[in-house]
Amino acid sequence: MKKLFKKGHIGYWLGKKKTPLSKVTRDKIRKTLLGHYVSEETRKKIGEKSKGRIAWNRGRPWPEEMKIKISETNRRKEIVPKWFP
C-alpha cells in the first residue's frame, strides 16, 4: 500500500488560525440546524459505520499531574471506578 504522507506530516489546517464566526453568522447556522431531523435509519447507519473504530485518544498516556487531579476530584465526588470491585 502506498503512503500518502511522509512521517511527521501535519494536516493543512492544523497550523492555521481560524477567524471566529460573527454573531450573525452563528445565528444563521443555528437557524438552519434548529429542528434538523435525523431518521432512525440514518442513525443506525452511522452507528454501524462507527462500530469497531478505535478512539483517537485510546492508549494515549495521561500526564502524572492530570492523573492526580482526576483522582482528587473523583475522591471528592466519591466516584468509584468501574473496575473497582
Overall description:
- The chain has 85 residues and is mainly α.
- It is built from three helices and no strands.
- The chain has helices at 23-33, 40-50, 64-77.
- The protein is extended.
- The mean pLDDT is 86.
Topology:
Blueprint: H1 23-33, H2 40-50, H3 64-77
Summarize the structure.
Helix content is 42%, strand content 0%.
Global outline: extended
Order of SSEs: HHH
Radius of gyration: 21 Å
Overall mean confidence score, pLDDT: 86
Number of helices: 3
In the predicted model, the low-confidence regions spanning at least 5 consecutive residues are none
Proportion of residues in helical segments: 40-55%
Kindly report how far apart the N and C termini lie.
46 Å
Strand content: under 5%
By DSSP, the count of extended strands is: 0
Largest sheet: none
Helices and strands: which structural class? Answer: mainly alpha
Brief descriptors of the model:
mainly alpha; about 0% strand; 3 helices; about 40% helix; about 80 residues
